[in-house]
Amino acid sequence: MSLRHTIAILAAGIYILANPLQAKPRSCRIVFPERPQSAPKIAYLFDGSKSQRVTLPSMNLSEVIKLPHGELTIAIVPDEINDPKDLSPNAPILRIPEKVNEFYIILTSDLKNQNLPLKMNLVETEEGKLKPGETLWFNSTEHRIAAKLGSHEMSVDPKGRTVSKDPAPATGYYIAKFAYQAEGKGPYAPITEQSWWHDAASRHLGFIVNSGGKLPKIYFYRDYRDPEPTEKGVDPKD
Amino acid sequence: MKNDRVTRPYRARKAGLGFAMSFGKSSGPFYQTNPSHVGVQQQYHNLSTLAPEDAGNVYWPPTDVDEVGYSIGELANGPWIPIFSVNMGPRTTIGTGPGTEQNRPTKGVLQSNPLASMALADPVSGNVKAHPANGTFDITYHSMSANSSLTPNLSTGKGFIATGYQSGDGLSRLVMADIPLRPMASLVELQGWNPRGNNPYPPFQHNLIGNSDATPLIPSDKIVPTVIDPPTVSTNLMHDDAYCANHVLFDDWFVSSITPQPVSFGGNISKDINTFYKDYLMGNSRLANRAYLPIPADSNLESAVATASATKIINSPDGWLKVASRFEVEGMFNVNSTSVAAWKALLGHTKTLDKIAIHGATEIVTADTSNKNVVSRGAIAPDVEAGTGPGFGGQFANASEYAGYRSLSDDQIKDLAEKVVAQVRLRGPFLSLSEFVNRQLSNNEDLALAGAIQTAINHLAEDPMKKLRDPANSLSDNTMAPANPKLAGAGYAFDKAAEGSSAYGVPGWIRQADILRPIAPILSVRDDTFTIRAYGDSKDPTGKVIARVWCEAMVKRTRDFSDKSYPADSIDPPPATNLINTTFGRRYEIISFRWLNPTEV
Predict the structure, then answer these.
(1) What gap in Å lies between CA A104 and CA A205, rounded to an integer?
(2) If you measure CA to CA, which chain B residue comes closest to A40?
(3) Does A175 touch chain B if contact means CB atoms closer than 8 Å?
C-alpha cells in the first residue's frame, strides 16, 4: 500500500471518527530551529484531504495551525495539493496519534530528501508534560548543561531533554545563568548570564545547540496564544 | 551625542542597510564623508556602516538574518520583545554566535586600535580608508528568538567585550594600554601611548613603540602608501606608524628615570626630583633603571656638591638634553653581537626576579616568578600568568591565555637567542638602534614583515601562543584570506602582512616590544670598550727581523672630547675649526695594557 493510499484512508477515518462534540480544536505550531539559508520558509501542510499554507519560521513559532481530530498522518509539501494522489512518495510525513490534540512540529534539516529537505518531529506536551510557564529544553550538543533559571535549577544531559519549572512565581524578568560540562565530563564552565522575560501564561520550547564555537547557543520560543474569539468576538477592551 | 540625533536621527542618511553611531563634538551631521587631517584636532568617535543592499550583502552577509513574526497580541502582552541584535566591538573579539559569516577577522592589533577615536565604514565609497576591514571596530547582527544567548551577557554585573560577549568566552577586563604608575625605566614603556591621536585614517595599529610589524595597507618597501591621499605628504595621514615612531624615538631619546619618587603606585610623592637626584649623586639612592650609574665625577658626592650638581641639571632649561652625559652603563649590550650565549644571558635576565606586579582585582598584587623567564606587556603585568586559569578579567578557564603575562622555558629562551642571532647575521650590522628595532623597507618579505626580534619570536620552534592562536579554543580566529570577497576594495598592498590570528598582539601575545621593554635601556649598536692588539718587528739594516713583540691594550671611550677644552655635554658638535675633536671625536682611555707571549697570539 502506498503512502498516498494510507493518508487517504486515514483521512477518511478521521472524518468518520472525529468527535463533533470535542470542545477544543486540534492545533499545532511549527518551528524550524537553525534553519539553513537554503531551506524553504513557506510550505503546505497536507492533512490527507486539503493543504493549508504554513510558515516555517526559525525565530519564533508559526501561526497556530488547526487540524482535524483523530489519528492523522500529515505531510509537508512545497506546493498546494488537495488530493492524496498528488502527494510525492518522498514528502516528509508525520503520524499524529489520535490522543494528541495539541502539539509542536519541530523541523530539522534532511538534506537527503530531494522533495523537501526537512524532517518533521512530533513534540507532545499534553497531560501535564509541559505546563504554562514551563520550558521544554532540547539539548542537541554533546555537553551536559546546567542552569539556574530564576529560583529554579535545571540540568539536561548531552543529547537529552528536560522540562524546567517556572523561573519566577509570576510574569516578569529573571536571571538565567547557564554553564556546561564539556562532553559530560569534568568541571562546569560558564556559558552566559542573561536577564530574560518570563511569561507565566505561556509554554516555552528551549534549544541548546552547537554554535560552531566553544560555547553552545541557547535560545527559546514563547508559545503565546491569543485568546480564542468567543461567539461574541473578543472584547475590544481586553 | 549630538542633540539632533534625538530629534532628527536619520537626517543626511540615504536609503539602504546601515548603522550609524556618532559620539563627540562637531558641527556636521556625520563625519565619515569628509574626514581630513584637520579632524585630528577634534574629539569625536564615529562608526558608520551604510551601504545599499548589494554592498551590504557582501560585507554583512544576511545569513544571520531571518524574518521574525509575532502577533499583535503577543507584542502587546508583555515586555519588549528582542528581535534583532547588533554588536559592535573590537575586531579582536570573535563576536556573539561563533560561526557567523559576518565577522571580519583581521590581524589583531595591527588592524585594530582600542584607543582609536574614529572609525569609518562605507564600502561603496571605494576608499581604502573607509573599507570595513580597515576600520578598527567590527559589527555583527543577528535575528533573535524571544530569549537568546545571542544578546551580550545581560546580568546585573560586569559586561564582557573580548574575546566574546558572554561570561563563558568574554573578558570583563583586558588591559590593552596602561599608564606607567612608577617612574619609567625604558622608552618602550610608552607602548601603551597612542601617538596616532585622533587620526581617522587606517592603519589602526596599537602598541607602536618598540614593535615592528608591517601593515598590509602599505607596500613592503615603503612607510606611506604608493598613492597618497590627501595628495601631499604634509597632509598624509596613512603611515607605517610603528616604523616612524621607532625611527624618531630610538637613538635620539632615552628615559633617565630621574623623577620624583612616588610613595607606592600613583601620585603621592615621597621625594621631589631634586632631592632624589641629589641622593643618587651621593650614592644613597638608585634609579629605577639600575643599569644607569653616575659617571665617576658624579659618584659619591658630598651633600653640598651633590645639591649643586643636581640643581644644575634639574633646573637647567637644557638639562634634559645633557643628562645622558652624566651616566655610564655597566655592560651595554651591542645588538650586533652574534654570540648565542650573550643573547641567551640577556634574554633570560628575568630569571633572577622573585616577583612580578600584576593588576589585581582592586589593587596591585604580586606573583612569585622565581626561576621563570617572565615576559610581560607592561612593567605591571596585565593579568595572571597565561594558562593558569581565568585570572582577574574572565570567568572561563583559559581567559589568562588572552589577557595574562607569559613565562618562556629555558629551551625557548635558548631558541629565541639562536633565532635572534640568525636575524642579526641576516640583517646586520645595524648602524642605529631604530634600524635594529624596525623592519627593513624591502621587497624581501621575510625582512619586511617585521624586525629582528619579532621575526625571531615568530620563528620559535615551540610557539608560546599555540593555545591562543588555535581557533579551536575559541580565543581567536584565522585572518581572512586575501581572496575573501569581504576584502575586495580593502586596498591591501602587502597581503602577507595581514596573515595570522585575530588575537595577534593582545596582552597574552608576546611581541617584540615586550622583549625589548626591559632590555632597551642597555642596548647599543656599538661598543665603548675595545681590546686592541698590536704587533711590531725590529729589523736590522738588511731587513731581517731580529725581534718581534705583541701587546694588548683595553681602551674605553669616555664622555670627554679628545680636546678636553670643549665641553663634553655640549649640545652642539665641535666647530670645524677644532680639528682635533672633529677628527678624533671622544677621548679614549687605556684601561689596561700588557705584553703578550707568542703562545697567546
Answers:
(1) 9
(2) B66
(3) yes
Helix axes B340-347, B512-519, angle to 10 degrees: 90
- Whether the CB-CB separation of A51 and A80 falls below 8 Å is answered with yes
Instruction: Tell me: cis bond preceding B35? Omega within 30 of 0 counts.
Output: no
Task: Report whether B522 contacts B329 (CB < 8 A).
Answer: yes
Provide the 10 A C-beta neighbour count for residue B466: 11
Q: How many CA atoms lie within 13 A of B256 on its CB side?
A: 19
Q: Which residues does chain B have within 8 Å of residue A215's beta carbon, measured at their own beta carbons?
A: 98, 149, 164, 166, 168-169, 474
Question: DSSP code of B394?
Answer: B
3-state secondary structure of B262: strand
Q: Please count the residues of chain A.
A: 238
Q: Does B149 sit within 8 Å of A192, measured CB to CB?
A: yes
Q: How confident is the model at residue A3 (pLDDT cuts 50, 70, 90)?
A: very low
B297 contact partners, CB below 8 Å, separation of at least 6? none
pLDDT, tens digit (0-9, with 9 covering 90-100), for A30-40:
999 988 888 88
- Chain A residues whose CB is inside 8 A of the B98 CB are 211-215
Q: Which amino acid is at A95?
A: R
Residue B137's contacts (CB-CB under 8 Å, 6 or more residues apart) are: B47, B88, B89, B90, B91, B112, B119
Q: Is the dihedral of CA B321, B322, B326, B327 positive or negative?
A: positive
Q: Is beta strand B147-148 parallel, antiparallel or unpaired with respect to A217-223?
A: antiparallel
Residue B312 phi/psi, 5° resolution?
A: -60, -40
pLDDT confidence band for A68 (50 / 70 / 90): very high
Residue type, A78: P
Helix (H, G, I), strand (E, B) or coil at B521: helix
pLDDT of residue B544: 95
Reference A234, options B77, B158, B541; nearest CA is B77
How far is Cα B380 from Cα A19, in angstroms, rounded to an integer? Answer: 78
Tracing cell 612607510 back to the chain, one arrives at B223
Q: How far is CA A11 from CA A4, A26, A46, A193, in A?
A: 11, 15, 10, 48
pLDDT band at B257, cuts 50/70/90? very high
Q: Which residues neighbour A118 within 8 Å (Cβ) at sequence distance 6 or greater?
A: A32, A39, A40, A56, A76, A92, A107, A108, A109, A110
A31 or B164, greater pLDDT: A31
Pick from B144, B154, B474: CB nearest A214: B474
Predicted pLDDT of residue B528 = 87
Instruction: Give the span between the Cα atoms of B509 and B375, in whole angstroms.
Output: 10
Report residue B225 CA to chain centroid gap.
Answer: 22
SS3 (DSSP) at A48: coil
B49: exposed, middle or buried (Cβ count in 10 Å: 0-12, 13-18, 19+): buried
Spell out the SS3 assignment of B268-316. CEEECHHHHHHHHHHCCCCCCCCCEEECHHHCCCCHHHHHHHHHHHHCC
Strand arrangement, sheet containing A102-109: A65-67, A26-31, A102-109, A118-124
Res. A10: pLDDT tops 50:
no
Please, are residues A34 and A107 in contact by the beta-carbon 8 Å criterion? no
Report the 10 Å Cβ neighbour count for B264. Answer: 10
Nearest CA in chain A to B143: A59
Q: What are phi and psi of B263, to 5 degrees?
A: -65, -50
Peptide bond into B29 cis (omega under 30): no
Interface of B with A (CB under 8 A): 63, 66-71, 73-74, 77-79, 81, 83, 94, 97-100, 143-151, 153-157, 164, 166-169, 395-397, 473-474
Q: Which amino acid is at B45?
A: H
